[in-house]
Amino acid sequence: MELRTYLRILKRRWWIPTALVGLTLVFSLLTLKPWQPHPPTYVLGISFSVGVKPQPLTDAFTYDGYYSALASEYLVDDFGEVVKGSEFAAAVSKRLADQGIVVTPGQIQSATQTGKLHRILMVSILDGDRERLPKIADAVIATMTQDAEIFMPRLHEDQGAVYLINRGGIAAIGPSLKQRLELPLRLVLALLTGVGLAFLMEYLMPRVQSGKDLEALGVQVLAEIPRN
């Protein structure tokens, strides 16, 4: 099918993508309300290191603590997953509940992000309440440094520990990339869907629109009456 044929189909069925984009725009404006300012979100960053003491072996070569350093590096990777888990979130939520602060484990999980820089574990905590954010951070720090062996028993057996090395300040962050792109993405998807529906309707409801359509069916056209 030639490009001109596609254009003729879109010219005949233009109302389908137009209507779908219009309905999507109205629905998105009513639900997203982009004219209203988004509530601020705050972030607080924390950094930890994990250490394992070398085992005192007097009758064996310990490779100058190489394996202890290697184990510490592996533990940083493991704790990155522990912090994102439901059990860790439940422990943090319980600490906050003991202080009269209600934050569900699900909220803790969704507000906590982890990363690693070299051999340092970085934890970012996001919350919309600036006053509550430091208390959540304190609960995360206490759970990491005091209850680490609960989530990683071998850490206690090897006489290891989790150390807080940096507690950053609170910073406000703007709207996320999803919030900025959600409306245009909806409109683009509605347009593509509308174009697809137009071609589908053309396929399911074939009509003779021009002499070329008859010629494609093997019918010879003797004359054609113009519309104008």
Structure description:
By secondary structure, the protein is α+β, with helices and mostly antiparallel strands. The chain folds into 2 domains: 3-36 and 177-216, no CATH class; 41-173, 2-Layer Sandwich (Alpha-Beta Plaits), CATH 3.30.70. It contains 10 helices and 4 strands. The chain has a 4-stranded antiparallel β-sheet with strand order 2-3-1-4. α2 runs antiparallel to α9, α4 crosses α5 and α4 (86-98) crosses α6 (133-146). The longest helix has 28 residues, at 177-204. The two termini are 26 Å apart.
Task: Report the CATH architecture of the largest domain.
Answer: 2-Layer Sandwich
Number of helices: 10
Question: What's the main sheet like?
Answer: 4 strands, antiparallel
Count of extended strands: 4
Flag low-confidence runs: none
Spatially, the strands of the biggest sheet line up as: 2-3-1-4
Task: Give me the CATH superfamily of the largest domain.
Answer: EIF_2_alpha
**Radius of gyration, taken over Cα atoms and rounded to an integer in Å:** 31 Å
Strand content: 15-25%
Helix/strand/pairing category: alpha+beta
CATH class identity of the largest domain = Alpha Beta
In the CATH hierarchy, the third-tier topology of the largest domain is known as Alpha-Beta Plaits
Name the shape in a single word. Answer: elongated
* First-residue to last-residue Cα separation: 26 Å
Order of helices and strands: HHEHHHEEHHHEHH
Mean pLDDT: 81
Percent range of helical residues: 40-55%
Number of spatially distinct domains: 2
